[in-house]
Every structure is written in C-alpha cells, then in structure tokens.
Amino acid sequence: MLLAIDCGNTNTVFSIWDGSRFVATWRTSTEHQRTADQYYVWLSTLMNLQRIEAEITDVIISSTVPRVVFNLRVLADRYFGTRPLVVGKPDCALPVAVRVDAGTQVGPDRLVNTVAGYNLYGGDLIIVDFGTATTFDVVDSDGAYVGGVIAPGVNLSLQALHEAAAALPHVDISRPQAVVGTNTVACMQSGIFWGYVGLVREICARIRAERERPMKIISTGGLAPLFQQSEELFDEFKDDLTMHGLTVIHRHNTT
Question: Taking the first listed entry, what is the main subcellular location of this protein, grouped into a coarse class (predicted)?
Fold first, then answer.
C-alpha cells in the first residue's frame, strides 16, 4: 500500500491508499524537530487502534517545509524499507511540466493540486486552496501549472489583527449574521469573511478575464467548506484534493 504524506506549514496529513481508496487519514501538527522514530510510534499506534493491517510498500511526500523532509525520508527507509518519492525533486516526474519563469520554485502542494485538479476535472481551472496562505493556482487546458496568486491565509490575517492591535481579541472565523457588526467580534468576523469573499471573487474574475476563456473554480483546504456554502464562489469542492494528487503522481512514476 501507498503512504501519502502532505506536509504543510501548519499540519501534516498521512493517508494510506490501497489502490482504489484511502483506508485511513490522520493529521498532526507540523514540527520540524520530530524524529522518524516519533513519527513511526505515532503512526503505528493509530494504525493499531483502528485495526489497520496495512503493509506499506511505497511512500510519496509533498512538503512545503524543507526541514521536515529528511526525517520523513528516514521514516520511509527505516520502517518501510522504501525510498520515497518527493514532489519537486528531479527523480519525481510530473505528468505535465510547469510553465513559469525560469528559475522559479513552485510549492510542491501547488504542483500536486494542479495534477489532482486536472485528473478530476480536466483543464482550464482555478484551484483555490485555503491553507496557511490562500493560494490560487491556474491550470492550463493541457494540465500544466502556469502560475497563480498568493494571498495571506484567513487565520493568518486574524492572527495579525489580534497581535498588531492590542484592543482586538482573537476570534474564530464564521459567517456573520449581518455585514455591519454591532460588537468587536462581529466586526472582525465580518471584515475577514466578506473580505475574503470579495478577494476570491475579484481575483478569480480577473484571472478569467486575463485568460479570456471559461474556467472552472475548485476549492480545497481547511476553511473551504465555510466559503463553499456562501455566494456560490466555487464550482466544486474537494476536501482531499492534495492527497488524490499524490496518488496520481505516484502512479505516473511507477507505471
């Protein structure tokens, strides 16, 4: 079976793929000092608790945190006896080459989302990923990544408000009952929620205008469901888009 690992700035997701479906998925905080042994104890304990008797034969890793990759490589080698594929490295081929400025390093998560989006929905896509950053990835008609947009993430913006303004509390993001808030929390929630609705709508509209063609908008990431229910911003929502992309890239490199 395949162990797919998606390491982001905030969380790391481990999923076991049996060739047709994900049999289990777990999430942990991303900590660069965590050792391979600690990863294995955590992972094997969860597998035992869920009575998953899976023999891991392959590992693929996507990581936006370079310092974490070494210990994940050791995990694959020491405990599963396999050399992992690492997205973004020369020995991990993509189905379609990226088309960006020479020398540009594209985040592995964005490459994986591009592959997944094209596999599921075809070309001419805008993929909006609500992670630590809010990213917009543009997928060409043939599945190539051709660029995008990076904006501050929703929680990052809330944290900045709280830390930079002494009088503003930390609040959870939710859809406010009204645009005009009548207390501090409601004002902050309205500014963040409707601000990001406007950001997504405007950026996607400008991408479509610049590309001069219809484009399907796909959402993913932790806060995507909140915005998915509002204002009909997106054509599709895919919770495990990145993990699906990892399985496609693994298949491309092993068949």
Answer: cytoplasm
